[in-house]
């Protein structure tokens, strides 16, 4: 049942696509493929249209977002598009002073460290990101039966940028708050869960037919800590968008020990990095959820024969699964030859055609 007054937006024109069928663990004509970070730096046509436009500004221009999102679909024939944006866009939209610095990533001017700092994180309203609504509408009209994946950052990963002030390898300030002031931490991730849910709501309401929650850095945590300090906030996000009826994907890097919990948080599809074979991942996640993954993105530098061999290993390991979406184990690396990606899509389609 859905709450009164809320319409199920799940049945888009892409409903019967291979990607959405795989998310629902239904039979597919071929194994669907898309790549995390498929839009962006590896494509010359991307570098061309982005020239002179800062990253955050480019996320606020619906026509540019539409063009960049469509580029990998045209070029690679992937089975899904992923909305061109960034996980920090909703934080910027609620007024956090941050920038995305080339070669670095998100940088926050005044990190969040105290209870007083929490007041800077007000709830997100759809009107704060009207450029997202506009871009998603334009995109879904252009994409037709090709699904559009909306996305957001999960509370832990967003909190890590807000607390550290930028990218980190150790998350020392993040963990200091989590262990040292669990009440402040819980309130912070709860606010972030609200912002993230609202950002996903906007994308689904405008026509996105699936969503992915990126908890990229959750692999820094042991399972007991993940369960206690992170899972409740991520579960709140998945619950909040459940009424839309669109598949919910959950992904993080180095999360082999967390795969079962990331499923339990409320995902329909669990993303797997390259460190755990797909059959072992399926065993860890248990029945009732599809899996996405998991070719090592570095394999794309090894030449086509090696790519085929390694892709075949992924397909073999995933052959017993009820729902498999082929992807890389993390994002496309900037120096990847785009032709290697196009050939990989062809290979997976041809190997799995039924
Ligand atoms: O296909 C696509 O490229 C879609 C667009 C997309 C997505 C899905 C971008 C554009 N960012 C993201 C998600 C994102 N952003 C994640 C989760 C995915 C992942 O784990 O890779 C994370 C952690 C970020 C934060 C971020 N933004 C980083 C990582 C920094 C770190 O901590 O190591 C970076 C480098 C950015 C900048 C960014 N985001 C996107 C692009 C194309 C860029 C490059 C900057 C530029 O072009 O100026």
Q: If classified by CATH, what would the architecture be?
A: Alpha-Beta Barrel
Computed over alpha carbons, the radius of gyration is 19 Å
Give the helices and strands as they follow along the chain.
Answer: HHHHEHEEHEHHHEHEHEHEHEH
Mind summarizing the main beta sheet?
7 strands, parallel
The CATH topology label is TIM Barrel
Q: What gross morphology would you assign?
A: globular
For the secondary structure, the number of strands is 9
Strand order of the main beta sheet, please?
A: 1-4-5-6-7-8-9
The SS-based structural class is alpha/beta
Binding site for substrate: 37-41, 86, 161, 216, 330
EC number: 4.1.1.37
Domain Uroporphyrinogen decarboxylase (URO-D): 32-41, 149-165
Pathway: Porphyrin-containing compound metabolism; protoporphyrin-IX biosynthesis; coproporphyrinogen-III from 5-aminolevulinate: step 4/4
Describe the structure.
The protein is globular. Mean pLDDT is 96; it is low at 1-7. It has one domain: TIM Barrel, CATH 3.20.20. The two termini are 35 Å apart. It has 354 residues and is an alpha/beta fold. The chain has a seven-stranded parallel beta sheet with strand order 1-4-5-6-7-8-9. Strands 2-3 form a two-stranded antiparallel sheet. It has helices at 18-23, 44-50, 55-59, 62-76, 89-93, 130-143, 155-164, 172-180, 182-205, 223-241, 259-264, 278-285, 304-317, 338-352; strands spanning 81-82, 98-101, 105-108, 148-153, 210-214, 248-251, 269-271, 290-295, 324-328. It contains 14 helices and nine strands. The relative contact order is 0.15. The longest helix has 24 residues, at 182-205. The structure holds coproporphyrinogen I (1CP). Coproporphyrinogen I (1CP) binds next to strand 3.
């Amino acid at each position: 049942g859905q709450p009164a007054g809320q319409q199920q937006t799940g049945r888009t024109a892409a409903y019967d696509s291979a990607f959405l069928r795989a998310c629902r663990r239904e039979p597919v004509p071929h194994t669907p493929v898309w790549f995390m970070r498929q839009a962006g730096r590896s494509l010359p046509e991307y570098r061309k249209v982005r020239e002179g436009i800062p990253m955050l500004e480019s996320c606020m221009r619906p026509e540019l977002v539409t063009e960049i999102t469509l580029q990998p679909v045209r070029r690679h024939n992937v089975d899904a598009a992923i909305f061109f944006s960034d996980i920090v866009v909703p934080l910027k939209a609620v007024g956090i002073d941050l920038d995305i610095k080339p070669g670095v990533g998100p940088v926050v001017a005044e990190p969040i460290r105290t209870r007083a700092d929490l007041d800077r994180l007000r709830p997100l309203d759809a009107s704060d990101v009207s450029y997202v609504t506009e871009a998603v509408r334009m995109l879904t009209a252009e994409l037709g039966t090709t699904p559009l994946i909306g996305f957001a950052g999960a509370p832990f990963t967003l909190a890590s940028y807000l607390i550290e002030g930028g990218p980190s390898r150790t998350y020392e300030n993040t963990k200091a708050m989590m262990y040292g002031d669990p009440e402040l931490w819980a309130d912070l991730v709860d606010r972030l869960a609200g912002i993230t849910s609202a950002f996903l709501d906007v994308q689904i309401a405008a026509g996105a037919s699936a969503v992915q929650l990126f908890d990229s850095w959750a692999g820094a945590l042991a399972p007991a800590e993940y369960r206690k300090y992170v899972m409740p906030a991520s579960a709140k996000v998945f619950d909040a968008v459940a009424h839309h009826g669109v598949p919910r994907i959950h992904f993080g890097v180095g999360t082999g020990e967390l795969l079962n919990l990331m499923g339990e948080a409320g995902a329909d599809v669990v993303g797997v990095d390259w460190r755990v074979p797909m059959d072992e991942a399926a065993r860890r996640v248990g029945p009732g959820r599809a899996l996405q993954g998991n070719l090592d993105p570095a394999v794309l530098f090894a030449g086509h024969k090696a790519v085929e061999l390694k892709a075949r290993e992924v397909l073999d390991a995933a052959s017993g699964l009820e729902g498999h979406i082929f992807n890389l184990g993390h994002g496309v690396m900037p120096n990847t030859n785009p032709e290697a990606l196009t050939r990989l899509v062809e290979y997976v389609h041809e190997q799995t055609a039924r």
